[in-house]
Amino acid sequence: MESREFLSKVQIPPVTQLLVWAPVENKLAYVWNYNIYLKKNATAEAVQVTHNGKVNKILNGVPDWVYEEEVFASNEAIWWSPQGKYLAYLQINDTGVHNIEYSLYGNDQYPTTVFIPYPKAGCVIPRARLFVIDVENPSRQSEVLVPKSVGVGDHYLRTVTWVTDERLAVQWLPRRQDSVLLQIYDYDGTNWKETSQKSKTGWVGRYFPAAPYFAANNMSFYKVMSNDNGYKHLHYVEAGKAKPITSGKWEVIYISKVTKDSIYYVSNEHMGRPGQRNLYNKSGHSAPECLTCSLYQDRCQYNSAYFSLNASFFRMDCYGPGLPLFTLMDNRGPAKGVLEDNKKLEKILTTELLMPTIKRATMKIAGFSTYLWYQMMFPPNFDSSKKYPLLIQVYGGPASQNTDYVFRLEWATYLCSTEKVIIASFDGRGSGFQGDELMHAIYGRLGTYEVEDQISAVRKFIEMGFIDKDRIGMWGWSYGGYVTSMVLGSGSGLFKCGIAVAPVAKWDYYDAVYTERYMHRPEENTESYKNSTVTDRAKNFKSVQYMLVHGTADDNVHFQQAAQISKALVENQVDFEAMWYTDKDHGLSGKARYHLYAHLNHFLQNYTLPK
Question: Which residues does the UniProt record annotate as the domain Peptidase S9 prolyl oligopeptidase catalytic (predicted)?
Answer without folding.
Answer: 409-607
